[in-house]
């Protein structure tokens, strides 16, 4: 048997090409999502820093509800990519339908709950007297659009397992364009539309989600030229419990990872929100920039997940290992470019969000913490993607628990309050968490136990 790192030049070139062809649309798609988030925040900031804080405080409750869908989607990508690697197209299509039925049921239940309990959710997230009313209205409207978004996300996760990231790029690009157009119309009341301010931003986001849903469903229509397509005649609406039980371990560990991620970020954000409205608005600006670079690496992680699953389905763990290496180095190159961008243009970037000198100067210093964590962020994101593709979600969940859910909030609180570093303490703990997660995930990946997992 060939050693892991002894891949032949022709095979290595072909594998790099496959990873890149899957990665670049996914990376571009993720980057566009991040850019739209930034533009969205800039549009909301025209209403003032209180509006920015009101919208920002809804992010964590929204993500906590979304984590159920994201965990399900990890299982969908891992299972479907294995079936495609094995050449079992019928089983791959059956898996897609099963994950899709579960996604619809979960979304209807979760987002109805979110709509009914909007005010308690945003209060728990840190909304104060200045922001509570706008935040609750924004969150309720957003919950309506989250149902079609959840279905779209699950379809896209299935298509990524097939390597069809260009379709998901089209889906999210269209959704983002719709979102931005209606942001312009509804936030400030342009072209005869009513001025709805924060509520207008929520309606625009929901319309974008509806557009994404329609394109996603169209992309899996029969005779779409791919392995995966909707077959409502051949596939019943009945749940395949044996299949779903088999997916339980992967999905349940992925849920744990998402839960620890959201719990840690929820507490982390609440600490930042306790510093005051202006400081929290500045935190939102910096976090959106941090998310932008993180989204970019998600594209390479998606490629690593798909190719790892397919390679293991083929019975070729060496191929999976080399594909992961290629994805990681592509991520590092991207991260180096983002690092340079943040360091050289930090003040002009912050000026895009605010004209206040304090926000631009202080925010520029805080953005340096994000800049130094770009390469570690790329590494830990892509190594986690490789492990998810192998079905090793338990290890990712355990590392996320200790680093993101426990260490990062605890260190943020200690540095922010007892040590008195305030915002600098928050972002120091942010960078530290990325470095530690990077190291631990690399060590686990290098041990290679993930290559022996059978799905």
Compose a concise summary of this entry:
With 455 residues, the protein is an all-alpha fold. The chain contains 16 helices and no strands.
Can you give a write-up of this model?
The protein is an all-alpha fold. The protein is 81% helix and 0% strand. The chain has 16 helices and no strands. α2 runs parallel beside α10, α3 runs parallel beside α10 and α13 runs parallel beside α16. The longest helix has 37 residues. The protein is globular, with a radius of gyration of 21 Å. The chain starts with 8 loop residues before the first helix and ends in an 8-residue tail after the last helix. The N terminus is likely disordered.
What is the arithmetic mean of pLDDT? Answer: 86
Give, in order, the helices and strands: HHHHHHHHHHHHHHHH
Class inferred from helices and paired strands: mainly alpha
Oligomer: single chain
Contiguous runs where pLDDT drops below 50 for at least 5 residues: 1-6
The rounded Rg comes to 21 Å
Beta-strand share of residues? under 5%
Number of helices: 16
How helical, in percent, are the residues? over 70%
The gross shape turns out to be globular
Number of E-type strands: 0
Q: Termini distance?
A: 23 Å
The main sheet comes to:
none
């Amino acid at each position: 048997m060939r050693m892991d790192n002894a891949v032949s030049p022709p095979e290595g070139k072909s594998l790099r090409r496959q990873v890149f062809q899957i990665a670049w649309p996914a990376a571009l798609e993720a980057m566009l999502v991040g850019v739209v988030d930034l533009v969205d925040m800039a549009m909301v900031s025209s209403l003032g820093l209180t509006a920015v804080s009101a919208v920002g405080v809804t992010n964590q409750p929204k993500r906590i509800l979304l984590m159920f869908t994201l965990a399900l989607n990890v299982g969908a990508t891992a299972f479907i990519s294995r079936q495609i690697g094995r050449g079992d197209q019928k089983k791959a299509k059956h898996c897609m339908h099963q994950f899709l039925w579960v996604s619809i049921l979960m979304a209807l239940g979760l987002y109805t709950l979110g709509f009914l309990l909007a005010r308690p959710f945003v209060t728990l997230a840190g909304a104060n007297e200045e922001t509570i009313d706008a935040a609750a209205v924004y969150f309720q409207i957003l919950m309506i659009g989250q149902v079609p978004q959840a279905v779209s996300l699950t379809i896209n996760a299935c298509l990524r397992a097939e390597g069809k990231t260009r379709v998901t790029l089209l889906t999210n690009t269209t959704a983002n364009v719709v979102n931005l157009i209606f942001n312009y119309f509804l936030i400030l009341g342009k072209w005869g539309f009513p001025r709805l301010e924060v509520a207008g931003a929520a309606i625009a986001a929901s319309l974008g989600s509806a557009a994404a849903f329609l394109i996603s469903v169209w992309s899996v229509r029969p005779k779409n030229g791919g392995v995966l397509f909707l077959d409502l005649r051949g596939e019943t609406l009945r749940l395949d419990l044996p299949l779903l039980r088999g997916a339980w371990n992967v999905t349940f560990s992925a849920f744990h990872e998402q839960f620890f991620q959201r719990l840690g970020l929820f507490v982390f954000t609440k600490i930042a929100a306790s510093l005051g409205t202006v400081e929290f608005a500045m935190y939102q600006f910096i976090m959106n920039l941090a998310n932008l670079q993180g989204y970019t690496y998600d594209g390479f992680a998606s490629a690593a997940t798909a190719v790892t699953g397919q390679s293991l389905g083929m019975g070729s763990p060496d191929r999976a290992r080399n594909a992961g290496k290629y994805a990681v180095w592509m991520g590092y190159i991207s991260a180096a470019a983002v690092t340079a961008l943040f360091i050289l243009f930090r003040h002009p970037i912050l000026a895009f969000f605010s004209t206040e000198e304090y926000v631009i100067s202080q925010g520029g210093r805080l953005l340096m913490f994000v800049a130094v964590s770009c390469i570690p962020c790329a590494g830990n994101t892509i190594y986690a993607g490789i492990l998810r593709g192998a079905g090793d979600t338990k290890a990712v969940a355990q590392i996320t628990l200790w680093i993101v859910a426990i260490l990062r909030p605890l260190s943020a609180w200690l540095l922010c309050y007892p040590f008195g570093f305030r915002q600098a303490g928050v972002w120091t703990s942010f960078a530290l968490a990325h470095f530690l997660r990077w190291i631990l995930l690399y060590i686990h990946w290098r041990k290679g136990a993930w290559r022996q997992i059978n799905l």
